[in-house]
């Protein structure tokens, strides 16, 4: 993609306004906290202290709007405390420009490295540095600086207290994440009725897993309907796929396929009902038709063999999902009639699934602060426990090829250079140059450039509107404070609609806030527009000079995904090879690694799409075909996982040979992908062919049971791996006019 096209795309993205669900009650609560603090500070201390306290309350409230699973009071307190400390230390060094510039470079470097912890930490750290550049100019003495820092901290305390005293939809984010996961599986079940190999995006399940990570204190307070449903959803997904797939499930047409379609429709209806109940905290309303389908027939069962066992597992899991969504837990009584209707060979699978949920529910009831089940909730470190974790994450990014390290170095250089440049210009308020740069800079190209355009456009419009209002109304101190609060409320309300919209409100907020301190608009508006433009241009230039392009790393991301997928398949095969001795959590950990690698590839591809970089090794066709092949690898592994044998089942010796061959091939295959060569699967192919020929000791004749699952699964796995090889084979003939070696860009 050319630079001109990249600039057009990023500018369009930055100025886009999205339709999002608004949270007026949350915005009102944040604005009320700001108004209380500003009013009290004005009454007791005057405009200067009111301005700094307003910045503290504003930043604390803004932190609570970030997409984080941390509790909102914790975010408000952490933001207020960190801004108070940086303001006080900044004032102590502010009279010595060289010392302050050095400290500013250190602050911004650490703020840039905070992106290693996560987007929320990076956003809060960057905002703190930017706001600190304003607040350090307000005090006039060390004691006054301490007072300003104290008021900033009070701003965080006030916002946290309001959240505790006036909660809006407790556990709402966790409810939404779990409900989205259940709804995604409901949609997946309905799509499987018409497309037995329909793809599934695991991101809702990953979000639900992140939301399930809670502290011990949260575990004691969590609503009952949030206990265990995510783990059930995780187990339902492979069962749905195994029922629908014609290779390892039932034939594509016939009476069995009709029964499967009925089950899938009933599963979709049931999961949707559970999702609504979890999201809104309401009772589950079940469809009578779905209940009828999910009742196991006493006689004349349509499905047999593995499909019959999958049917039993699905019905048991769906009943447990409904009970969990009701918040009633799992009881032994439910499902007794269904167990009586099962044949002896099917009852074991049903009872195992039921009893696992029963044991999990009982452990939660006895010890809610501990993890009751690997799929129930995960431990989230407290703020103090997070410190060593954060240090390890930041230390891991201290390498030359790290995008986070490059971002930290860029933002530190730009902030210090922008501060020196701003103070040298005869405009006043030179801190607006580094402030604008710090606020727009992000670790990737697209966000940095789109935010730079959005910030300048939003600032221009916001100061124009605020200036017009000031000229018409000539507000005094109290009215300026009120207008600042209204601007902040609009920003909180419209925050998720787009960065440009929020910057319109922020620009007006700053004009009114500085006007509250006696500054005329003619002293602030023209300078801010010019200096904001300078800061944005400086940020864009820095990325062009010292970039962290994602396009050259696409093959590495693809290789990482390949390794994760193959290790997942290997872990599944190892379970067939040694049902009693294989680690219980090996398959689960491999599956999670596969999902993380897939999301990393998807994010990298989205970032690379807008980069003005010539393609280096991965054509547009390969970028489309290779992910499809890898998705098939993971799907086949998931289908085999759905039929995993019990611990007391006889092993499949050939599965150990296949798993070993996969592990032997994957490292060389990943290296080949990184080096722009096609991967090969000679060891795995030879092991499978030897088994098919009877050379590995497999019984003669048509395989049955677990042998059949492994043999069919291994064949499908080899087909998917060969598809990946074809997608990455640079020597294969290409049709005339193929994009081939063209740059990986948008059309």
TrEMBL record:
Localization annotation: Membrane
Major subcellular location class: membrane
Region (Disordered) spans which residues?
Answer: 726-747
Q: How does it sit in the membrane?
A: Multi-pass membrane protein
The Integral membrane bound transporter domain, residue ranges: 419-541
Q: Where does this protein have compositionally biased stretches of type Basic and acidic residues?
A: 729-739
What's the protein name?
Answer: Putative membrane protein YccC
């Amino acid at each position: 993609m050319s630079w001109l096209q990249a600039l057009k795309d990023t500018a369009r993205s930055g100025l886009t306004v999205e339709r999002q669900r608004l949270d007026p009650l949350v915005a009102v609560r944040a604005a009320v906290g700001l108004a209380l603090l500003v009013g009290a500070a004005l009454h007791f201390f005057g405009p200067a202290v009111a301005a700094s306290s307003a910045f503290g309350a504003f930043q604390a409230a803004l932190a609570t709007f970030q997409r984080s699973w941390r509790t909102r009071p914790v975010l408000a307190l952490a933001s207020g405390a960190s801004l108070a400390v940086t303001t006080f230390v900044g004032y102590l060094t502010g009279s010595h420009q060289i010392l302050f510039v050095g400290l500013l470079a250190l602050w911004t470097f650490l703020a840039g490295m905070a992106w290693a912890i996560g987007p929320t930490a990076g956003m809060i750290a960057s905002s703190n540095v930017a706001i600190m550049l304003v607040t350090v100019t307000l005090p006039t003495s060390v004691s006054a600086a301490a007072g300003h820092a104290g008021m900033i901290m009070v701003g965080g305390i006030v916002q946290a207290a309001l959240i505790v005293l006036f909660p809006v939809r407790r556990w709402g984010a966790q409810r939404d994440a779990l409900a989205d996961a259940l709804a995604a599986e409901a949609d997946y079940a309905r799509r499987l009725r018409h497309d037995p190999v329909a793809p599934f995006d695991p991101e809702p399940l990953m979000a639900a897993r992140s939301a399930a990570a809670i502290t011990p204190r949260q575990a004691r307070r969590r609503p009952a309907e949030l206990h265990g449903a995510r783990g059930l959803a995780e187990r339902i997904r492979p069962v749905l796929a195994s029922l629908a797939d014609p290779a390892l499930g039932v034939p594509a047409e016939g009476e069995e396929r009709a029964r499967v379609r009925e089950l899938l429709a009933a599963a979709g209806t049931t999961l949707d009902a559970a999702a609504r109940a979890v999201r809104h905290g309401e009772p589950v309303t079940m469809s009578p038709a779905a209940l009828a389908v999910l009742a196991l027939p006493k006689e004349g069962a349509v499905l047999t063999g593995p499909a019959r066992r999958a049917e039993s597992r699905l019905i048991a899991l769906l009943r447990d999902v409904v009970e969990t969504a009701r918040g009633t837990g799992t009881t032994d009584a439910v499902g007794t009639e269904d167990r009586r209707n099962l044949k002896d060979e099917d009852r074991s699978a049903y009872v195992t699934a039921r009893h696992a949920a029963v044991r999990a529910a009982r452990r939660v009831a006895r010890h809610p602060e501990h993890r009751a089940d690997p799929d129930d909730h995960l431990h989230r470190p407290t703020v103090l426990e997070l410190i060593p974790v954060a240090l390890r994450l930041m230390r891991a990014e201290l390498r030359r090829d790290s995008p986070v390290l490059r971002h930290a170095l860029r933002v530190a250089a730009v902030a210090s250079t922008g501060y020196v440049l701003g103070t040298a210009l005869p405009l006043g308020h030179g801190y607006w140059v580094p402030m604008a740069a710090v606020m727009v800079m992000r670790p990737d190209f697209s966000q940095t450039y789109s935010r730079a355009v959005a910030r300048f456009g939003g600032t221009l419009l916001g100061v124009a509107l605020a200036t017009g209002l000031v000229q018409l109304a000539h507000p005094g101190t109290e009215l300026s404070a009120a207008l600042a609060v209204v601007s902040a409320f609009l920003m909180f309300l419209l925050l998720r609609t787009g960065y440009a919209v929020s910057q319109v409100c922020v620009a007006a907020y700053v004009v009114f806030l500085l006007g509250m301190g006696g500054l005329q608009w003619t002293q602030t508006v023209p300078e801010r527009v010019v200096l904001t433009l300078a800061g944005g241009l400086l940020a864009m230039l820095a990325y062009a000079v010292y970039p962290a392009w994602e396009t050259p790393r696409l093959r590495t991301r693809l290789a990482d995904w390949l390794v994760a997928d193959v290790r997942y398949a290997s872990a599944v095969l190892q379970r067939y090879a040694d049902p009693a001795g294989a680690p219980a959590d090996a398959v689960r950990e491999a599956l999670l690694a596969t999902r993380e690698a897939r999301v990393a590839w998807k994010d990298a591809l989205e970032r690379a799409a807008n980069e003005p970089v010539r393609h280096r090794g991965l054509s547009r066709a390969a970028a489309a075909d290779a992910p499809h092949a890898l998705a098939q690898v993971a799907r086949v592994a998931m289908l085999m996982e759905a039929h995993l044998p019990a611990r007391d089942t006889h092993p499949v010796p050939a599965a150990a040979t296949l798993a070993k061959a996969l592990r032997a091939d994957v490292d060389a295959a990943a290296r080949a992908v990184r080096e722009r060569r096609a991967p090969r699967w000679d060891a795995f192919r030879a092991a499978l062919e030897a088994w098919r020929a009877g050379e590995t000791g497999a019984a003669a004749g048509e395989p049955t049971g677990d042998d059949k699952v492994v043999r069919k699964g291994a064949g499908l796995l080899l087909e998917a791996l060969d598809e990946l090889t074809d997608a990455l084979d640079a020597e294969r003939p290409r049709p005339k006019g193929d994009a081939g070696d063209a740059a990986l860009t948008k059309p």
